[in-house]
Please model this.
Amino acid sequence: MKLDSKIPEGPLAEKWTKHKFNLKLVNPSNKRKYDVIVVGTGLAGASAAASLAELGYNVKAFCFQDSPRRAHSIAAQGGINAAKNYQNDGDSVYRLFYDTIKGGDYRAREGNVHRLAEVSVNIIDQCVAQGVPFAREYGGLLANRSFGGAQVSRTFYARGQTGQQLLLGAYSALNRQISNGKVKMYTRTEMLDVVLVDGQAKGIVVRDLVTGKIEAHSAHAVLLCTGGYGNVFYLSTNAKGSNVTAAWRAHKKGALFGNPCYTQIHPTCIPVSGDHQSKLTLMSESLRNDGRVWVPKVAKPGLKAKDAASIPEADRDYFLERKYPSFGNLVPRDVASRNAKYMCDEGRGVGPTGLAVFLDFADAIKRDGRKTIEAKYGNLFDMYKQITGDNPYEVPMMIYPAVHYTMGGLWVDYNLMTSVPGLYALGEANFSDHGANRLGASALMQGLADGYFVIPYTIGDYLAGTSSAKISTDRPEFKEAIDKATSTINKLLSIKGKKTVDHLHRDLGHIMWEYCGMSRNAEGLKIAKGKIQALKAEFWENVNVLGGSNELNQELEKALRVADFIELGELMVDDALNRGESCGGHFREESQTPDGEAQRKDDEFAYVSAWEYKGEGQPEVLHKEELKFENVKLTQRSYK
Amino acid sequence: MNWFTKLLTSTLGRKLFMALTGLFLILFLVIHLIGNLQLLKEDEGHAFNVYAKFMTSNPLIKTVSYVNYACIIIHVIWALLLTRKNYAARGVERYAVSKNSSPWTSRNMGILGTLILIFLVIHLQGFWYQMHWGGIPTKNYDGEDVKDLFATVDFAYTQPLWVIIYVVSMVALAFHLWHGFASAFQTLGVNHLKYNPVISFVGKAFAIIVPALFALIPIWMYLH
Amino acid sequence: MKITLKIWRQKNNATKGSFKTYQLDHVSPDMSFLEMLDVLNGDLISKGEESVAFDHDCREGICGACSLYINGRPHGPQQTTTCQLHMRSFQDGDSIVIEPWRAKAFPVIRDLVVDRAAFDRIQQSGGYVSVNTGGVPDGNEIPIPKKVADEAMDAAACIGCGACVAACKNASAMLFVSAKVSQLALLPQGKPERKERVERMVAQMDSEGFGACTNTGACEAECPKGISLTNIARMNREYFAASLSSYEIVSKGGGD
Model:
């Protein structure tokens, strides 16, 4: 298989403009003859479904939640970047492009990232027009803040609920098209397979989660906007329902999976409190602006937050300030996360589990007064108190890193098409724009860029060359996919083993976190591979899924998702093993500088890993898409 | 459906009529109270009887009184319609346990209203019907025969049962107004951070003072 | 902690439900309420009993999926979503009654899961600004006073969980509907369609079978996002003004 990224030739700033002109168009009166399936209704899915329906295509949209408004995009807090330069502080499309490429540790495509930066400005306009209540200055103009260590203020926000407001904006656009009859919405419906006819994606098989009915839907193109796969770790900041099933089934039907090992781990999450833990809660990164991260110099097992004050200043190790004097507590996410892990590995972690470090506001409160701190972080402090029962105004917070975002995903070309013709992947579900590490406030930007401003152009190029004849779901390809989905479900229900789905999922999470988490090495990854294979065997022999297939059965839903997570886990391990460098969110212990920092190896690994599924039990085949950098100079990150 | 029937049949429209009729009835209470206070004048009912005559004969007042009757009827019928819809909206299965996070009065406007309605029937039968069609003896003031409603009232308030009915009903009215006064403004959309405290204060003061004065009359007359 | 749970179990919408009692002996006060239910479900499955179905997703208080009427209050004893409620809000030995949202417009799907699609249909009836993608003015061409933007944001914070309906003795959806109407009535972007919007959304709300508002304030008291009754008053104003002043123009079509 030859990978063609279809990046247009020509100067960086003109690629997208030129490409848009070169794309084929579908005649306005013909658009209504084409059906498009959109799976997932988060930022990418809702915006794509609405925009395509506005153009005249017939859209069928699917989500497993009870409403499109509940997609996990809703949980994004911080904001959305756009190169508006409203603040007159030197921002530009090129600067946003540059920051994103550099932030991604030079593992993303220049062409894609520049396009993302270009359309970022349109996104803000679009959202404002929809009635998204962005924060405003007293003069009535849009407010900005600087986010995630960026040198310019380019982040637009709606309190701490930017994701919610952007999603509700896209949801409202989607609702308008549902009301116009151009989008048919299927809620509580989960995709189980993609259907290929003559090698092209022509439909999907879904399960109605209420009735259990398995049905096929056909279309001329299929868009997967199904988010990331952080839940492979069991504990993550993702929603409980977030899953890889749609992307994984597409992968098994021939779509290559790009950079599966690139995971972003967020340093400021509320630590695990016990075995019952079901998910992790993110606290905004902004806390590190005023909080100081520390652990005791000598291990104090089980040290409680309320006893932290008893540790004298001299016995505290402000390890980020010590190791990175110029950035201090504001080092990037991966550096902060990794160092917290090291402290805990040394046994100096705090709290009942020893898997936490302090984030202390005592100095900030002393310096600025409680009022100022309350004005800045009041909501976050309240949330922390609600969850942990500790009052951060009086005792230090405890934090620990958690899986937050996955940069990897289905491999797509410049048109967002996967290696399967007619099958597209948008938003977090694709691998494209963030390289090995994502900048803060860029996930929302990418999801909406793909849905509002990329796919409406690129899909026409494919559809214009496709027959508009309706595809019958009576075709054998659909029947076969339905049968396969049905038999998988029946198999799961018939095992009646001893372990719950959650139990096995937790086991998978432990393996992934231990060996394929913040820091990885070849030896550990090999162990992990063996363990995952054993877990997979155990899952199919010993999982206990009660209930029937023709009813709302939440255990069955979970089982289907976990089965795919296990397979994905193995691929992540393969990919991590293959990538013998440290880059972005991926830290390989064998590849570090003498003083223990990440060492990228551009001469060996400046490529996208795209994995091809070869069948049950067969090793996946690696394809490499070389990354060419014509505009930026590759530099090694340093925060000393 | 034309716009008016649409307005009339929507839940918001029905509430609008509840609020408007309610506010009119509140206004009526004030007029009624001013009249009733004449009972307290120690003139053997002269002022009160003249007032009662005026209220039943002045054409303008008569017109307004028809509006008033209409308001009572609309207020009651709309309340019944809304209550039925509201009850149905909860569905067949009810909550087994319910802790309420709303004021007691606001949840029991229907019961309070029913008490007031029962009172109204008794009250109208006792005085209003008597005044219009009953055989009330007359008194002669300056050559004019005026029905001596005062005597009927005065007699009624010598009976403890009547006094109790009146006082209890005024308590129900007070609770009804306690919620109803401000609620009417909310329904009309009059909700402004600047004026909400005023509406709330006036409403609560009204809910206490007006029924208290109404209740004072029978007590006072009973004691005299 | 030891906890006794009395949970509503119902196979599906066609069958009748009833309460079942369960005992949990090892509840940690640090567990979230939903994690406590996870533990219960794990126990049930091990015993060969089907797990209790309940809606949940983000578990961080923003998606609005979780519901549950806990001891007579939507989302339980604190003014948060159920997923943010922790067991430390209860005492050792407590008995907890868990019911689904009960409203005619929210039929039970199974156990504690209800169908809230009525909310979506209300939004579809007009909860949007009719702009297509592309061709919109620059974000700063529409100046919006900070106060207005903040007030619109207060209304827009609604997560669509349905606690307002669950709390209201009339199962009224006024707080939910008015939050959207308010957001778009306050912002200049929403002004061109404000009359039609409120008329259509109220009509849809009524046809879904929600009750009327009797201004009890229970919705505001229970709303996990603090949506204010002011929005209901604003919607009333919007609706009456629209009813009295809107009219339809029949387009003749044509052009060239």
